[in-house]
Amino acid sequence: MDLFEKATVMHYHRHRIAEFQHGTVESLGWRGAHSQQIRYQVLAKVGNLSGKTILDAGCGYGDLKAFLDQHFSGFDYIGIDQMPEFIAEARKRYEGIERTTFYQTDFSTAELPQVDYVIASGVLGYRCKDDSFYTAMIGKLYNSARIALAFNMLDKSHFPQHDLLIGHDREEILTLCRVLSPRVECFNDYLEDDFTVLMYRDEVDGQLPV
């Protein structure tokens, strides 16, 4: 993704902030809190995150952290996002909360830490003229995870043409993931235009939360 494309994404979110107010899920680009929470529920199927280290790539305001707190305990959370407005709000919301850190950085260029789980919700949905960007980023995020990567994408077969966002061919993405990972799971029955992929380091890794 080149500088112009990244600037376009930032401009889009700043326009959404002006329209829907700072701190809202709509300013993040979601249709509403319901669809965001549904996506989180599916991503959380990646395993029992209690006691683990988690990287949230494209964390926004840290809404995923609040969701995980309702279902898991004792985990270390790292959120990264390129939008300074999002990171400033996230730090404000979670000020003083232990084992919770936010960094303003571009996940596509930053050196990512080694963690147990990487979760990426929405970050692979922005249009980029370089088709190899998406496969490279899946590989990069997966390489940062010791246990598993969970990410979602818009489904090309249902998502309409959009100037900024882009849908992907689910089978093509799964073919790539199966080359990288010995165990891949996919969910596409929760929202019409979305799918979630779970990529594990080991065939037996991952335990569904109780």
TrEMBL record:
Methyltransferase is among the record's keywords: yes
* Residues making up the signal peptide according to the UniProt record: none
Share an example GO biological-process annotation for this protein.
Answer: methylation
Q: Does the record carry Methyltransferase as a key word?
A: yes
Q: Which residues are in the Methyltransferase domain?
A: 54-131
What UniProt keywords apply to this chain's record, in alphabetical order?
A: Methyltransferase, Transferase
Q: What is this protein called?
A: Methyltransferase domain-containing protein
Species per Swiss-Prot/TrEMBL record: Nitrosomonas oligotropha
Lineage runs: Bacteria, Pseudomonadati, Pseudomonadota, Betaproteobacteria, Nitrosomonadales
